[in-house]
Amino acid sequence: MTATTARQPNGAADLAAHADGLLAEAADRWERTGSIPRSELAGLAGAGLFGLTIPVMYGGSGLPLTDVADVHAAVAGRSPSLHSIVVVHSMVCHALVRWATPALRERFLPKLAAGQMMAAFALTEAGSGSDIRALGTTVTPTDEGDTLVVDGCKRWISNGLGADLYLVFGHDAGAGRAVLVPPGAGVTAVPEPETTGLRAARASEIRFDSARVSADLGVSRPGFAVPHVATSCLTHGRLLVAAGAIGVARAALHIATGQAAHRIIGGSVLGERQLVRAALADSAILIDGAAALLATTSRAVEERASDAPIRAAKVKLLASRAAQAATDHAARLLGAHGMVAEHQVTRLLAAARTYQVIEGPTEVLLDLIGAALVRGRQAVSGTGEAGP
Ligand SMILES: Cc1cc2nc3c(=O)[nH]c(=O)nc-3n(C[C@H](O)[C@H](O)[C@H](O)COP(=O)(O)OP(=O)(O)OC[C@H]3O[C@@H](n4cnc5c(N)ncnc54)[C@H](O)[C@@H]3O)c2cc1C
What we know:
Layout: H1 12-33, H2 38-46, H3 65-78, H4 80-99, H5 102-113, E1 119-122, E2 138-141, E3 147-157, E4 165-172, E5 175-181, E6 187-191, E7 204-214, H6 225-262, E8 264-265, E9 268-269, H7 274-302, H8 308-333, H9 344-355, H10 362-381
Parallel strand pairs: 1-4
Antiparallel strand pairs: 2-3, 3-7, 4-5, 6-7, 8-9
Helix pairs in contact: 1-3, 3-4, 3-6, 4-5, 4-6, 6-7, 6-8, 6-9, 7-8, 8-9, 8-10
Flavin-adenine dinucleotide binds next to strand 1, strand 3 and helix 10.
């Protein structure tokens, strides 16, 4: 298999350290230029970054999710944009591992593990963002049944310009469908307006105008795409975004503690002030809490626990709050420097804001968690009626 060209890491710490070294210089440049050159992604592929969640038999590293999460945190702390590209790639790999036919897995996973192919996750549409049940894209089989015709327009697709394969969600007469579509005839990628957060991931609009693909590129049975494939991909993605948010929060706290320890104001270091210490403590507590929850949630997702989707929503919320608090505190402690557009803290802050919207906006996840609590209480009381 060609995928064996990917370097097999000895473990998460090894890979995180390797990626950290590779990213130290590059991350800043990517954010400034607003893109990550494909040639540099290839270098990271050699470190095993794109096959983290792919089984060893397909050329991936098959690391446990707890270790994968550690690598994601390290990558996002350096480059939130690269991290988001790895997340969507991993979500598509997850869909293939879990829902695709053995033939499709055999055909694509080795190349995806080696980074020879990059994948993008194409779910969002203009009329279907936080509500994924309102998809307008159609995936229609021809009369002969050997071809699927895709029509629709996907919005804000990370790495949409650079991807070699899109996992597209749509429907046929109301039955949800997921299908792999390579760029080609009938597929047009147009960059979206530049975003403040995850800028170098180059979110793009992808138009499908009667794009025809072989029917064997369908992933899972018709009707399964939204309730099963998309949901399990989003659970996986929320876990990885939580890991990234923790990495961003840690990077911000590192900046903040450096400032508190060294910046002298009025004859003493900033960190002598109780209010400053409280801000650092606030960030640290949220980070530690989110990291602890991430570890248990990773295991629950790995074991496919029935409440894994709710747990993933919870950790994504907590981690994105940690990122928001830590980046806010860090930017403020830097004073004027924290307002500089090209400063690392500004990018971390923008990433933290983006985490409140991607992979389920905060309000949607709160609603999901609250609804599960109400359902649980109703199940215990055996009625749907309100009670004390
Ligand atoms: C940088 C970036 C990268 C992205 N990458 C991808 C990608 O790779 N693939 C992909 O498919 N999509 C991607 N997206 C799209 C992202 O998933 C959507 O932006 C997100 O789902 C929200 O959809 P929307 O923007 O249409 O907001 P809307 O659905 O219009 O929601 C707007 C706001 O309304 C509020 N809201 C929504 N629902 C509720 C509710 N039930 N109760 C209370 N308030 C509510 C929330 O505050 C929400 O933020 C990306 C977005 C960004 C910014």
